[in-house]
Amino acid sequence: MTLLFPRHSLRAVLMALGLIACLAPGLLCAAQGDEDETLELFSAWQAGASGATRSPKPLSQTAENVTVVTAAEVAALNAHTLADILDTVPGLQLSHNGGPGIIAYSQIQSSSFQHVLLLLDGIPLTSIGSNFSDVSAIPARIIERVEIIKGPASTAWGSALGGVINVITKTPERDRSFSGIAAASIGSRTTSDSSLELSGSVKRLGYYLSAGFLGSDGLVPTTRIDNNNFHGRLTWELPGQGQLFAQVNSTNARQGDLYALPYDLRQQDDKRLINALAGLRQPLTERLELAVSGYHIYQRQWSAYYNISDGAPWWGQAPDLPKSFATESSLGATASLTWRGDQHLLTAGGDYRHLEITGNSIDSTNYSPYSRKADRWGLFLNDTITMGRFSITPGLRFDRPQTSPDQFSASLGATWQVSDSTLLRAYVAKGYGMPLLQYVDAVPAKILTTQVGVENSSIPYLWLKATLFRNMTWGDTTEQRLSQGAELELRTKPLFHTSLGAGWTYTDTHRTNDGSQVHYAPRNTLKLLLRYDDQTYRALLTGSHINWNSMAGDNPRYGGLIWDLHLGATLYQRENRALELFFSGRNLFNTGQYPYDMVPTPGRWFEGGIRVKF
Fold it and tell me: Is 114 within 8 Å of 444 (Cβ atoms)?
């Protein structure tokens, strides 16, 4: 392990130390524990809310299989990006090409990564040219909560066959005019993450600003990364509890995204992603609310391929075309009306997107430039009808994609609060997944899902959630597939500041014409968690195992669990100021966990850092 301070990390550490000097008095005072705060980490399933139908409502009225990750859970992970957070969520499988910030492919209950929709405050960040959702491009520090819908959510979000990862970012601090967080860490292979957050409100104006740098010499060979990112949000409170808001998010990265030793191939990328959002939320009456927003997304990626052995252009690459490129632009708008009645939560609205993409594809014999444009729109309507302990959630959506046939999606869900400790769920839905934009007149993938589930907390200190699912997919390939399985999740409430968590998912995916197995649809996924938090000291141990169901010829490895340990200590806390040290050891037992040998797992590595709140 190499622990050296590059210049950019040293500057960040010095900045943090300067802020610490302002907080010098009482550095060794221990913070008092607060059991109530710890309990909040595990109460989302009971009293939390979800936006699965595009309007916040209690999880007890949410028929979909939803997992919510709270801000406190994010902080406990010492996470760098959204990918680190998703690694711990039951039912999700991530395949990493390298360390923090390097590409990670996310699957939900063994669905294809191309069928997972990624949203950032309602902005669809899934690439229109590859259907890839880059969950490693979103910094963890800007995240307030993450909502994961496991299974199709097309009646609310359109092309979301496999599920939705909905990221809600932090909002301005309401009770202070100026506050902030400075953090810096350094680890193996000079892996560093430094950031500064500023937040506050002055009268009606609120602001949240965050800037950071993520860098590494590469935890996997040839995967060096230099990533600069920025996120800013402004809000203006209107009379009658309305709000105007605007935000911008930007990422610039140069990184190695592939180390395929068996093919003597490495990939180097130059990425640029910027998105902007502006909108309005305004109650029109006591029961009726209007929400309008518009956004712009620009994404560019240049990719070059070289031999690992001698650094020459890769043998499979056209010699006169050293790089491939793709540029995407999206201009969109959303409008919706939400009516909250005594027994109804009714949401109706529409989405519009103007899409443009240009690029090329390179192989040894062909150069294929392409340029496509499309205007897509959709109309949606859903309702949550509540009758005492029983709720029904019907949903409808019509989409006109222009490049493919029109799509009609429908869903029907129900929940029944049998008792204060038992909740039953059921959900049936038809959804779709769009093909790549550059494929004209391609047929979208279709899905018909059936899910039933139960949540129970009748055993003291224990919460259990079980879900059975059956997914039939067809349309974009010549084969029809059936995926069926079960998901079991449990958590304990803290006892002596200590709690446990576990999640297990089993999925069997096969072709319906001959019953043959579909490879690379993971069969078994196990997530384990042991947590201690007394508000002064904290420790989190997580374990993850994924049976990738790969072909033997790809030399996969998934024989054990990957164990990560995250530690933290609050050395000083007084009012709104705090000083925290943290440490993480990742892949403690150097376990290999990958679907094929082209993407080896980063080995054991360590990092430590400091965080100052002011």
Answer: no
